[in-house]
What does this fold into?
Amino acid sequence: MRNLIVLIACWCTAHVLSVAHAADSAYASPSVSRFKSNIESIRPMSPMQVGGGGSSRSGSKAEDKAGDKKSGGKPRPLTEREKEEQAEAELQARIAEKLATMKAQQAARAAAAAKARKEADARAKALALMPPPRANGTHWGYEGEIGPANWHKINSDWIKCSTGNRQSPIDIRDGMKVELEQIVFDYHPSAFNVQDNGHTVQVTMGGGNFITVGNRAYELVQFHFHRPSEERINGKGYEMVVHLVHKDGEGRYAVLALLLERGKPQPAIQTVWNNLPLEKGDVSAPAIVLDPNDLLPQRRDYFTYMGSLTTPPCTENVLWLVMKEPVQASPAQMALFSRLYPLNSRPIQPTSGRMIKESM
Ligand SMILES: [Zn+2]
It folds into this structure.
């Protein structure tokens, strides 16, 4: 009987361990009730069930011997001891069988889990290899979800807004003072049109207005406004800035920046304001001319560095020319623009060791 108890105890321990192990697996759902039913199914038959008679173990040896003598040639009835041994052997066999089944089930579960893991890994790898979906949005602004920090996410072609290392605007400081060549202005009174394009007020110029710098001629395409100024000089910002965008024959940009400060009214700016269309997106094409020379300051000293467009797609390799002397505009002129665009400036970008030159 003691052997029987030890055997059951062993089996229980093995079973509990196997159930606990199975619980670790993502594919097993063991329950206490299953565990109990397993025990029921292999519980050994009681001595009563095996051979009837409820006699105790005491004195069984004497009875065995007596039984041997009585048996003669006929198959003699089993002694209590033999019955117990037989029950033990049966129990052992059933335990072995059960353990083998459990082992096989465990192996199958482990194999299924390994297969599932492998498949999940393969799926994750395939996903990682897939290029990210292309974005092709066009709606951008200066605040929130569509603001400068997210421009590169709106359209895949605007990636330079995030990854570029020659971006504009910058805080212009520590310039190298050199004898910079004069910018040659070849501007004339020209036809123009005005549009509030949803990002700024933009004036598109008729052809024939050029600047020459570094032996290269750039034609004025358009000018527009930002509030506050995008660029800073030694950390100082200005109330507004005008950007005159030029392009050469090979499509290279040169942007001339005119910083605006409060002062007397600016006649060219007044001409633009006078011709603002009533609706956003509409274009007004007045039957008058505008002379871009009227925008320029008296002194022609400037800072220069290589940067980018300050709006998407943030194209780099743009030659920046920032005039040192600010241009004046009246508070009323400034106020008018601020009603349309209280804030339309890209934040300062890292200089990343770029060379800045300035007129002596
Ligand atoms: Zn601009």
Summary: The first strand starts at residue 171 and ends at 172. The chain is about 35% helix and 20% strand. The chain has two domains: 2-49+78-127, 162-359. The longest helix spans residues 80-129.
